[in-house]
């Protein structure tokens, strides 16, 4: 991978969204992209295609408030306006920080859902971020997921999340991020061609839009 360089920092407080908003986010992220030739889409691709001219690779923690803002307010807009047209590819990596008691458990649930199917994965991620204040207090992730997924799917997720292979997968993603000196979340790598810019913090969508439009013009 190309050398990572540069640094931008900014944070933003999240707004509250309901279950309807979670489903709306999932529907945007699940919308089909343009039919263009592409390489195989990796399982952590939230939107767009790998041959898009712009790539965003995100390292995120489910207990991070800035990550919550990014996932609920920014990523759906990026996928809607730029992912579906094949202009931006968004890759998502679970990167639980050591200082967050339950974020690794949440990452295991996320990866477990991802191994089942994409729709379930996106639903689980939306619920985890939306309900962050609830499960972050006691680690009761099952309680918040029960309202959004079937009992059968929840049982499958729970059982998979308890497998050592899933925890090992989380560890591999952490090692991958640490290789590129990811120590805080969200950390985003913006790649255009052979140039990559490191961005830290939940930049507002307006800022990303200006960046994308400037690159694509």
Secondary-structure blueprint of this entry?
Blueprint: E1 9-10, H1 19-30, E2 45-47, E3 54-60, H2 65-83, E4 88-94, H3 103-116, H4 118-130, H5 132-138, H6 141-145, H7 151-161, H8 164-179, E5 187-192, E6 195-201, H9 205-216
Parallel strand pairs: 1-6, 3-4
Antiparallel strand pairs: 2-4, 3-5, 5-6
Helix pairs in contact: 1-2, 1-4, 2-9, 3-4, 3-7, 3-8
Please characterize this protein's 3D structure.
This protein is an alpha/beta fold. It has a single domain, classed as Glutaredoxin, CATH 3.40.30.10. 50% of the residues lie in helices and 15% in strands. It is built from nine helices and six strands, in the order E-H-E-E-H-E-H-H-H-H-H-H-E-E-H. It has helices spanning 19-30, 65-83, 103-116, 118-130, 132-138, 141-145, 151-161, 164-179, 205-216, and strands at residues 9-10, 45-47, 54-60, 88-94, 187-192, 195-201. A six-stranded mixed β-sheet has the order 1-6-5-3-4-2, with helices on both faces. Helix 1 crosses helix 2, helix 1 (19-30) runs antiparallel to helix 4 (118-130) and helix 3 (103-116) packs across helix 7. The radius of gyration is 16 Å and the shape is globular. The chain starts with 8 loop residues before the first strand and ends with a helix. The model is unreliable at 1-17 and 33-40 (pLDDT under 50).
Quick synopsis:
The chain contains 9 helices and 6 strands.
Helical segment tally? 9
Radius of gyration: 16 Å
Look at the structure and name the CATH superfamily.
Glutaredoxin
Beta-strand segment tally: 6
Q: What fold name stands as the CATH topology?
A: Glutaredoxin
Shape: globular
Largest sheet: 6 strands, mixed
Estimate the strand proportion: 5-15%
Structural class by sheet pairing and helices: alpha/beta
Helix and strand element order = EHEEHEHHHHHHEEH
Distance between the termini: 26 Å
Approximate helicity band: 40-55%
CATH architecture verdict: 3-Layer(aba) Sandwich
Which CATH C-level class is it?
Alpha Beta
Overall number of domains? 1
Task: Strand order, main sheet: write it out.
Answer: 1-6-5-3-4-2
Residue-averaged pLDDT: 86
